[in-house]
Amino acid sequence: xxxxxxxxxxxxxxxxxxxxxxxxxxxxxxxxxxxxxxxxxxxxxxxxxxxxxxxxxxxxxxxxxxxxxxxxxxxxxxxxxxxxxxxxxxxxxxxxxxxxxxxxxxxxxxxxxxxxxxxxxxxxxxxxxxxxxxxxxxxxxxxxxxxxxxxxxxxxxxxxxxxxxxxxxxxxxxxxxxxxxxxxxxxxxxxxxxxxxxxxxxxxxxxxx
Length: 209
Ligand SMILES: [Zn+2]
What we know:
The chain is of the alpha+beta class. It has helices at residues 9-21, 77-86, 99-105, 117-122, 137-145, 167-189, 198-206; strands at residues 31-36, 39-43, 57-60, 66-68, 92-96, 128-129, 152-155, 159-164. The chain has a single domain, classed as L-fuculose-1-phosphate Aldolase. The longest helix is centred in the C-terminal third of the chain and has 23 residues, at 167-189. The two termini are 31 Å apart. Residues 76, 95, 97, 134, 158-159 line the site of zinc ion.
């Protein structure tokens, strides 16, 4: 793996490319940030995550004001500031419009079906925040609220947001969710998934202890 220090612009650029190349952030959608000792490094608005360079990353404070950088920060900056405010243990956040995951956010289907052991073990159920206008403070407040009990939240008719200690962890979370979503769609084509039963679920959850 490429060498870079965690929580730097290089860290953001590396995982941004991985996100785009995995189809997680089509066109100029999605945004990415890390918490640093000086504030929050966040992607600029209107950039494609695959084509960013260091100038497309802006340093903002925890109220969303620009501290360093010529570009405008992501229009969803308040989603990031609200979550960092709430959770001391989260130092990296990715917001994605991954079509597979977003399909769940746009329909009445929850990401909660016990069809894959891995999903039961690591997620169980992904909460879904209600719709508000993208980039609004209302959206940021409503969505961040779910981070009291979850590290990942679906955003109705919009996308998904996830946080962890490092961008690598967030990326793997989103990649796992996408794999679940793709598998779910595959099972629909093949006539429906065979769900794990209660006994199976209990056994799987005991692996965590
Ligand atoms: Zn969005």
